[in-house]
Amino acid sequence: MTKESEQSKSTDPKYPYRSEKLLPREERVVRFLETLQEVLGAKIYNLPLETYLGTCAKCNNCAEQCQVYQASRDPHDLPAWRSDLLRKVYKKYFTTSGKLFGGLVGAKALTEEDIDNMVDAFYRCTMCRRCGVNCPLAVDNALITRIGRVILERLGFVPSNMTVSTRAQLGEIGNTSAIPKAAFIDTLDFLEEELRDETGIAIPIPRDVEGAQFFFAAPVSDYIMEADTLLGIAKTFHAAGANWTVSTENFDAINYGLFYSDADLEKILNRLLEAAHSLKCKTIVIGECGHSTKTALLFQKVFGLSEYRGMEIKSVIEVSHRFFAEGKLMFDPTKNPETVTYHDPCNLGRGSGIYEQPRELLKAAVMHFVEMTPNRKMNYCCGGGGGLVVVEDLHDWRMSTAGLKKVEQLRATGAKLVCAPCANCKKQLRELIQAHKLDMQLVGLHDLLGKAIVLSGKT
Amino acid sequence: MTGSEFIAGIFPYIAVALCLLSTAWRFVRWLSLPPHVKWTLYPVPEGIAGQLKYMLKEMFTFETLYKFNRRLWFGSFSMHMAMVGAALFFILYLGGWSTIFVVQLCLLVLVIAAIYIIGLRIYDKNLRLLSNFEELFNLAFLGGVAALGFAASAPHVPGSLRLYFLGLIELHPNTSVLSTVHILAVFLGGLFLIYLPLSKMIHYVSKYFTYHHINWQKK
Amino acid sequence: MPEIELAGKKYEIDEDGFLQELDKWSKEFAQAYAKNEDIEGQLTEEHWKIINYLRDYFQKFGIAPMIRKLCKDNGIDMKRLYELFPTGPAKGACKLAGLSKPTGCV
């Protein structure tokens, strides 16, 4: 292994926001290939990578699925072209045909410029997996993007917005928004006060309850941004008579490791699992957040310590839906008279199979529900997926390019409210609504459920 | 043994054996790599019947391509169907249940489709960007095999092809009935069979894994 | 580390424009920076109320408060908050108040 360069903090003008400890240019190629070899040898990825990198037929069907390409019409946004950046390297160094025939079979020796291209390309993919749905060969370009980013991180290419958050989370404070414990408790007190003011009854947000059935972890930004979502969730648990708790030690479900690093993903995931395990909870309930739901679901059995693998992991949407199906929740839809449409967060829909539950809940809790077109497995990403929503320098691009399809879609619904149960989507959609002056507002799912829920003890 | 005796008498067995072995090798290789991370892409079709239905529909309509890439679909669909058709009707022909004419028709479609896709890959700027020599070579190879097959199935020596192939199946190939164009077609066809599973055209196997083992994994 | 020069003084900021040396904050800093955050003219009493509230909360807890709490304690709604700070409470208001950058999906 080459020694990590001492020149910390990027001075490379090409990557103003994407790099932390960049390797010197001349060391990057070697490190890249070493890391690719490591990834290919890792059991986790060798089946998808061998099939994805080995068999793409270059039919370009993915171009029609990609909202970034549809908006930019830049051939460098073609998903197959992007994936080919990695495929060429794979072929050159890891396949017999590539070693023998080189460029004839699309293999290419890696250069520093190729790495530059990858930094750009892999951070212009929102990892929405829409192209995977309609790939005749079922190649998932999002996984290739992810692997590309995992390798680039080892060269020092990673948005500092992500690593700053991860550092806070893995450090003493323990969460991505760096909310100290005292502030968190103050916020919980405030939320309980709000619940009392709103409903006239005491609805607790239980803290550190050992043996509670449900261990609740929200994307921590909710404790700054999404009061209504949290209030709705507390009301739902209360109405269902559920035994639940939050941990005041670890209350953050976010796992940005999904977007750039297996090593960080593993550490963050085990912190979360450990928190639930130490309170002896059976079910981890992830708040309204796509990527952290998917990460916990997908990687629990891969990276979770063996003693943590028995716990059940659910999205709060599934849990609320189960309460609803069991007849534990009653809604008064007249409390939500506006027309509501639903945005399928990629990581909840295509990534976790949560399509119908939120719709059934919405139809019970609002007066007018309209579908967005297209929807479910064909829904467009908000334009800030793959963690790009936290990268401040990509804001203008997210508004003008990545989110453009979404804006058209939102406008066409004529709805006054767009419901998106994902912290990532919420931020992006709010910004889109503002930037494009749409006559609508963003809400979370439990915001609406909380408004319509009929609580006993309330007149 | 002359060169043409070897090509017509021995080489077909080698080619078929290598094709089967390589296909099996790649199948077993991927089977030995179970997916450790659950990278499911929802929705997953319900049950074996649902998955079979989805797969068969995709295989025999090329629906995804039809919906989003019609221009390529015309070529790709015809090419694949013609390939299956040529093989199927050739077997029927050997059994005496079909005329060679249907096989020739399939081969002709195959040649035209291959040329059409090559043209599209050069004409369309995005496909041109994505294609490299390998894609064009594979198409040309397949088209070449089909063209030679077409030429060889023209009635130079009536019934000879059928006699030869029936002999091959009974392990007594009668190579004396073949003309030069027959020998060439058998040779190129054999080479293609050897090349097919080693090339990226192995997607007839990989598809099973990308769908069943990755996209549709539920555990 | 980038710097910004406001009203004749230099301040260290991060790449997103957040003040790095929190103790260097001054009223002049906030006023001079307002234009960058799409606020025209002088900061009003309403602005100052929010800024001071944020600074007090930050001093006590080391983080900005929940936005709902900010609104409630200051008797304004979200709409008004965005009118006052067009670039948003998490970014614009915190920046002017000299708070460190909120991270994550905010």
Describe this protein with a few key phrases.
heterotrimer, B: 219 residues, Fumarate Reductase Cytochrome B subunit, 0% strand, C: 106 residues, mainly alpha, two-stranded antiparallel sheet, 2 strands, 45% helix, 8% strand
Please tell me about this protein's structure:
The complex is a heterotrimer of chains A (459), B (219) and C (106). Chain A has 459 residues and is mostly helical. Helices cover 51% and strands 6% of the residues of chain A. Chain A folds into three domains: 25-158, Fumarate Reductase Iron-sulfur Protein, Chain B, domain 2 (Orthogonal Bundle); 174-325, Rossmann fold; 333-452, 3-Layer(aba) Sandwich (Rossmann fold), CATH 3.40.50. The longest helix of chain A has 19 residues, at 181-199. In chain A, 58% of the residues are buried. Residues 1-11 of chain A have low confidence and may be disordered. Chain B has one domain (3-24, 48-213): Up-down Bundle (Fumarate Reductase Cytochrome B subunit). Chain B is built from eleven helices and no strands. Chain B has helices at 3-9, 11-31, 47-61, 63-68, 70-95, 100-123, 125-130, 133-152, 160-169, 180-195, 203-215. The longest helix of chain B is centred in the middle third of the chain and has 26 residues, at 70-95. Chain C has five helices and two strands. The two termini of chain C are 23 Å apart. The chains are: A mainly alpha (459), B mainly alpha (219), C mainly alpha (106). The interface between A and B is large, with 54 and 46 residues.
The top-level CATH class of chain B is Mainly Alpha
What is the CATH H-level superfamily of chain B?
Answer: Transmembrane di-heme cytochromes, Chain C
Helix content of chain B: over 70%
Strand content of chain A: 5-15%
CATH topology of the largest domain in chain A: Rossmann fold
